[in-house]
Write a structure and sequence with these properties.
about 375 residues, alpha/beta, Aspartate Aminotransferase, domain 2, 2 domains, seven-stranded mixed beta sheet, four-stranded antiparallel beta sheet, globular
């Protein structure tokens, strides 16, 4: 056997994703295909993003493109933005610049967890399991509340064992679009304090917040960092800029972590990122952070697209979860078989993501980052298969 155990475990954990895309490959090249799978852009990039990159690609010193770790202007801008958004005074030195949220999550897991430790992840949820398997960690799934997909604190409590080291919270949540309220997060904080005392081992919370700035209908946002001191926060600019190929994100240590423990974590960030393969964003992306803090996807237009699809698919009989944030629409697959449903849509030139990717084989996800014309073009096939 050539593969390492961790490589094979990661391969198996992400198999639903790879098998789905292999099934689509046979259909590649057809004209007029409407791809609603991932949150990729389908229009020209935001002018503010292009301007920032154009400005900062011009070198101003001999070391402009030299090795960079986490640059101070980027960290200072982010700390000020977090304070303004959440009223939590993050320190610039407690922010590690990373290659998107993927990079931040990889650092977070290795910063506080050891091989064999368990990490509680939401179900349905994002692709945490392959990352955990690749780090020799054990994913333990905690279902979200049935029907509402709200955070189910009792389910998290049931998932905790003496080996639990991290609990992941994703709000606004991918794929459901739910935004968790302060009351539920306070309840979770109380549960994690009690579980830490019971097991004699501190349980950390990783707040996965890449969609934090993409919310609808005036819905507010509470970070778990406001509720639970032992919190790490990851963020990605790729969502709000709709530029996932430009890898820029960060991991932030909550200022409410006790000073001695926070200093220990802080001192390990650069060595750990170096050990993971120089896990820092490219220099030009870091130089651009002060300008990019002011750039955003058009949320009102995204709201219109959400309302278009919710209205049309609801009228066709689909059972949908109306998203409060993110740019996804989550629904029940007609007939209960998401793979068959996605396959039938693909035959009609429309690609959606089956819920098998999120351990929910009866659901599907649509990305609203498609153009309005693309979404309109997908509706006839979606109506045809409504059941």
């Amino acid at each position: 056997m050539s593969l390492s155990q961790r490589a094979r475990a990661a391969q198996e954990a992400i198999e639903p994703v790879t098998s789905f895309f292999l099934s689509l490959r046979a259909l590649d090249g057809r004209p007029g295909v409407v791809d609603l799978t991932f949150g990729d852009p389908h229009e020209m990039p935001l002018p503010g993003l292009v301007d920032a990159l154009r400005t900062n690609v011009e070198p101003r010193s001999a070391d402009w493109f030299a090795y960079k770790t986490s640059l101070a202007p980027a960290r200072e801008t982010i700390a000020a933005g977090l304070d303004a958004e959440q009223g939590v005074p993050f320190a610039p030195e407690d922010i590690a610049m990373t290659q998107g949220a993927f990079g931040a999550i990889a650092v977070a897991f290795r910063l506080v967890a050891d091989a064999g430790d368990e990490v509680v992840i939401p179900e349905p949820g994002w692709f945490y399991a392959p990352m955990l398997r690749a780090a020799d960690l054990v994913p333990v799934r905690a279902p979200l509340a049935a029907g509402s997909f709200d955070l189910d604190v009792e389910a998290v409590e049931r998932a905790i064992t003496p080996r639990t080291r991290v609990v992941v919270v994703n709000s606004p949540a991918n794929p459901t679009g739910r935004v968790y309220g302060r009351d539920r997060l306070d309840e979770l904080a109380t549960a994690l304090e009690a579980a830490s005392a019971r097991t004699g081992r501190r349980i950390w919370l990783l707040s996965d917040e890449p969609y934090r700035r993409i919310r609808f209908d005036g819905i507010g946002f509470t970070s778990p960092a406001e509720c639970y001191p032992w919190t790490l926060v990851d963020y990605s600019y790729g969502k709000v800029l709709l530029a996932p190929g430009q890898r820029l994100g960060y991991l932030a240590l909550s200022p409410r972590i006790p000073a001695a423990e926070r200093a220990e974590l802080r001192s390990a960030l650069v060595p750990l990122q170096m050990g993971l393969g120089w896990g820092f964003p490219d220099a030009v992306m870091q130089y651009s952070v002060p300008a990019l803090e002011k750039v955003s996807i058009d949320v009102p237009e995204l709201t219109r697209r959400r309302d278009l699809m919710v209205g049309a698919l609801g009228a066709a009989g689909y059972d949908l979860t109306v998203p409060e944030g993110t740019f996804y629409l989550w629904g029940v697959a007609p007939g209960g078989d998401a793979v068959a449903f996605a396959g039938a849509l693909a035959e009609r030139g429309v690609y959606v993501l089956p819920g098998t990717v999120f351990d929910r084989p009866g659901h599907f996800r649509i990305s609203l980052t498609a153009t309005a014309d693309m979404l309109e073009g997908a509706l006839p096939a979606l109506r045809e298969l409504a059941g």
